[in-house]
Amino acid sequence: MVGVLFGYRLRAGRPENPANKILWIVRQPRRGQPLHIRAQPVGFSARDVSMSWPANSSPGEIYPSIDNVPLAGCWRFTLRWAGHTDLVALRYR
Fold first, then answer.
1. Which of 24, 26, 60, 78 is least buried, going by the fewest C-beta atoms within 10 A?
2. pLDDT digits over 21-68, tens only?
3. Domain range for residue 85?
């Protein structure tokens, strides 16, 4: 799993101009299955965030998304698609 960030920094809340756009690129085939994301705070208390993105983009094995979290800090993303799982840590300001 690779996440390509579209914007200088990820920001907590629901920012616009730019939004927290991430293009997730997966090595294993999507097989038409959605990407499910669970974001959990690392080292502080906050509610987990869950989101899902359909496998309806091309070319290749990609999932474009806008991934927002409520508070600044480090967040651990658990990403699941088509029987595969990966973990990514992201810092939001």
1. 60
2. 999 999 999 999 999 999 999 999 999 999 999 999 999 999 999 999
3. 2-92
- Among 33, 31, 27, 43, CA closest to 76: 43
Number of domains in the chain: 1
Q: How far does CA 32 lie from the centroid of its chain?
A: 18
Q: Among candidates 77, 88, 81, which has minimal Cα distance to 26?
A: 81
The number of angstroms, rounded, from the C-alpha of 41 to the middle of its chain's C-alpha atoms is 13
Residue type, position 36, single letter: H
Which strand ranges, in their side-by-side order, compose the sheet holding 62-66?
Answer: 2-6, 21-25, 62-66
Residue 91 to residue 68: CA distance in whole angstroms: 11
| Euclidean distance between CA atoms 25 and 15, whole angstroms | 23
Instruction: Kindly state the tokens that stand for 34.
Output: 């959605």
DSSP code, position 71: S
CATH code of the domain in which 41 resides: 2.60.40
- The whole-angstrom separation of Cα 63 and Cα 69 is 18
